[in-house]
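Notes on consecutive records. When two proteins share a document, each keeps its own sequence and its own token line. Never mix them. Below: protein one.
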Amino acid sequence: MLTTIAYIIAFVVALEHLFIMSLEMFYSSNEVAQRTFALDRDFLQDYRVKTLFKNQGLYNGFLAVGIIWGMFFAPRAAQFPLVMFFVICIVIAAIYGSIDFSKIHIMEAGISSIHYIDFVNFVISDWIVIKIYG
């Protein structure tokens, strides 16, 4: 049951990053992107900015697909470590983004990932207690 909840949270993280990817790659100059990234329209219209956003979106897509691949297509023994790897990559990127870009970035990109890691720690702790005390 707990593992299922952990995978549901990871799947939400993947969906969130697919949404971010679509904003960055295909809709970087619309109003939703302006609000999400707190940037003005003129800046987002710049060809150089669009190119950078598309590249960044591609990486967000890779992270999302990595989580989905780990959940559904990887060998059973590798599923959990792969999902954790990609979620941890997202948390590190969110922390870096909040330091370098904006404190809001950790809220937008990292909170669901951090909740996933917290939940996984809870699951592991619970599993250890069950194994020790029966």
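Protein two starts on the next line and is unrelated to protein one.
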Amino acid sequence: MCEFFVKADPIQYEQRSRTVRMHGVLTSIRLENMVWDLLAEMAEDEGCTTNALIAQFHDEILAHRGEVPNFASFLRVTCMRYMRRRMMALEKAQSDAGLRAQPLQVAATDALTTPLQGTGTDGRGALRPTLSPVVSPIRAR
């Protein structure tokens, strides 16, 4: 099992800082490349920019909790929850269609090992996996 994780592309867990503007204030956020990739995917699903999505998350967590003690960790956990929700939706769709679990395992492996498109993290322009028929795993519709 560990071999799967150990063989991850080191570029995925390298950190990169980005400057994000929230309410006119520039803020630097340092996250792993894979987290930035997932945030870009989530923003695309929502039809907005990555910066707009991050600002929306900040506003919503601030409104809900009254403070944002560790926003970078919040974004990492948000990405993990996003991926979990996508996998659960795929599993449900396959279950509803009467498919076996093996294709789900293959899809999960592909989703975790295939670099996302347009992020510059793999240098080859590889396409990201599509886990249809998920609509938007960020918010219920």
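For the record: The first strand starts at residue 15 and ends at 22.
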